[in-house]
Amino acid sequence: MVKTLNKKQIQDGWQNSITRERDIKKVLRQTLFKYKLHIDQELFEKASGYVCEHY
């Protein structure tokens, strides 16, 4: 998933953009759905927080 995000969100400061944040969450949801983990809201929130903090 991180590779997918890196390809789409190369620019610095993407965390400050609402559109980019929405794109990140969309890719994250798609990835979780792929592995049948889309039902777990807590997992989504933790993963989203991790990506925003570290990338």
What does this structure look like?
The chain contains 3 helices and no strands. The chain is mainly alpha-helical. It has a domain at 18-55. Helix 2 (18-34) crosses helix 3 (41-54).
Attribute tags:
3 helices, about 0% strand, about 70% helix, mainly alpha
Distance between the termini: 12 Å
Secondary structural class: mainly alpha
Helix tally?
3
Please mark out the parts with pLDDT under 50 across 5 or more consecutive residues, or reply none: none
Measured on Cα atoms, how large is the radius of gyration? 11 Å
Strand content: under 5%
Q: Can you give the helix content as a percent range?
A: 55-70%
Summed over residues and divided by their number, the pLDDT gives a mean of: 77
* Beta strand count: 0
Largest sheet: none
SSE succession: HHH
**Dominant shape:** globular
Q: What's the helix and strand layout?
A:
Blueprint: H1 2-8, H2 18-34, H3 41-54
In short:
The chain is an all-alpha fold and 55 residues long. The chain is built from three helices and no strands. Helix content is 69%, strand content 0%.
